[in-house]
Write a structure and sequence with these properties.
By secondary structure, the chain is an alpha+beta fold. It folds into 2 domains: 102 residues, Nuclear Transport Factor 2, Chain: A, CATH 3.10.450; 85 residues, Nuclear Transport Factor 2, Chain: A, CATH 3.10.450.50. 28% of the residues lie in helices and 41% in strands. The chain is built from 5 helices and 10 strands. The strands form 2 sheets. Strands 3, 4, 5, 6, 7, 8, 9 and 10 form an 8-stranded mixed β-sheet that branches. A two-stranded antiparallel sheet has the order 1-2. A hairpin with a 2-residue loop joins strand 4 and strand 5. The longest helix is centred in the middle third of the chain and has 19 residues. The termini are far apart. The N terminus is likely disordered.
């Protein structure tokens, strides 16, 4: 009986999707941090990563590769973050399976763009704000007054949804007011298609 239980616990006998799901569950049980640019992180407490769906992975160079729709909750600095999106997951299995870093690169990229916007607003840097706009954005650049107004609004929470090459973000201020931001994936990262400044 013990031998049978041992065999069923063996990663090589589980389906690729089950191995990925199990590795994500272990990551969630441990709690983790997602590293961002400029020495920022997204701190994810225990139990705040959920695999909503996992597409069966394939073996590649000793690792499993799969796609998973993740729900993640955490905090980046003082900003509460809630995320739903599809991520490419790499899992390495030996005696157990472990998610390789970065485990949520799309989320990391969107958060880096959001922080770049907040930093540019805080500095009153119109050129930096304009540089964050998507190439397809045909709106005129913001005025200095629009920049000042946007900078006066705090960001208490970001509600992020990523689908394919686009992201929608609800940015909530401490007073409960919200602003809707749109981002699109470009060759060199995420850029704003709506919501600047």
């Amino acid at each position: 009986m013990g031998l049978l239980l041992g065999l069923f616990g063996c990663p090589s006998l589980a389906s690729p999707a089950d191995r990925v799901r199990g590795a994500l569950e272990r990551l969630s049980e441990e709690g983790t941090a997602l590293s961002l640019a400029r020495e920022r992180t997204l701190q994810i407490p225990t139990g705040r990563i959920e695999a909503l769906a996992v597409d069966a992975g394939r073996e590649e160079r000793g690792a499993l590769e799969a796609f998973s729709q993740l729900a993640i909750e955490g905090r980046s600095g003082e900003v509460v973050v809630s995320y739903v999106g599809n991520e490419r997951i790499r899992v390495r299995c030996t005696t157990s399976c472990k998610v390789e870093e970065p485990f949520a690169p799309r989320l990391a990229g969107v958060l880096e763009a959001l922080w770049a916007r907040r930093d540019a607003l805080a500095a009153g840097d119109l050129a930096a704000i304009t540089a964050l706009a998507a190439a397809s954005d045909r709106n005129p650049p913001p005025t200095l007054e629009e920049l000042r107004q946007a900078a006066s609004r705090d960001a208490a929470a970001w509600f992020i949804r990523v689908e394919g090459r686009t992201a929608v973000v609800g940015e909530a201020a401490a007073d409960g007011s919200q602003k809707r931001l749109g981002l699109i994936r470009e060759a060199d990262g995420w850029a704003f298609s709506a919501g600047l400044p």
